[in-house]
Amino acid sequence: MRNGTRVAEKILLVHDEQPLVESLKNVLFSVGYEVLQATDNDQAAQILDRETVDLLITDTQLNGAVNDGLMNYVNDAGYGIDIIVLSSTPELEQVRRLIDSGVYDLISKPFHSYELLLSVSRALEKRKLLARSRELQLDMEKKIKEKTLSLRLRNQEKQQLLISTIRSLVSALEAKDKYTEGHSRRVAENASMMAQMLSFSSFDIEELHLAGLFHDIGKIGITESVLNKKGQLTSEEYDLIKTHPLISQKIVEQVPQFKRISKIIRHHHEFFDGNGYPDALQGQQIPVGARIMTICDAYDAMTSDRSYRPALSESRALSIIERNAGTQFDPELVKIFLRMRGARN
Ligand SMILES: [Fe+2]
Ligand SMILES: [Fe+2]
Fold first, then answer.
1. Among all ligands shown, which has an atom nearest to the Cα of 269?
2. How confident is the model at residue 345 (pLDDT cuts 50, 70, 90)?
């Protein structure tokens, strides 16, 4: 029944009755187990520390004393070994203590060798099943980890693909509307500089930078004749222009991690006094990133050539921003922006 190529299971016999030990050794050895022997608990502890033991057999009495120490030692040290205890006439109290300490089996002496072999075989089978189930669990955990990692990588790839698609939309927009060339980049740079002055976290600064890059992406859906119109816009044309924050938001929120960025983008044309669009939000209702973006956006629009007017000087643009603090712009953020542009201490 035992295969020669298999490693024999090791059984530690802790007993002081030499004739019994010899007979047990013979029985166990005859069916292919490897038997180690100790005559007291100290010897047993040394063997347990040195060898991988699969099962321990001992007695309720050892060297004339009640043998609870070994059971406790094996449990406390966490060896995870089952114990079979032999006993002549165990007291009920002792049986209860043995049960409490988790012994695998109690065999009363005298016993027939088949009783012991049956118990040994069951205990070792249980040990093998436990080891196998632990292996399966570890294997399962490993597979779950691998699967999670590959899913995460796939999501990252997907996200990168979406980001590069949005970036190419920005380039396409800049090619279509020559007046916005470099606008998004400059807005992104100024907005993140303001965020640094406000001691935002590096994560928030990065989000604001991306929001700046993508804020006008929705203009891709607006016809060139309206975008590049030299004269005054009709109210229908202006209504069309006003849809761009919503279109920008729709495009950017395709990236699941860009929810907050898409909110900043949605509100980059809100006014601090509630006269902006698309939601006519007021003051603190407007996300702080959007309030920053509004200032940087207006500044860059004023200091760039437009189809309907040439660029304003920096000092003129800054004074217009200062004048509109509290109406179009958050007055506290205007102070920061003016300081950043060197127009204030
Ligand atoms: Fe815009
Ligand atoms: Fe803009």
1. 1
2. low
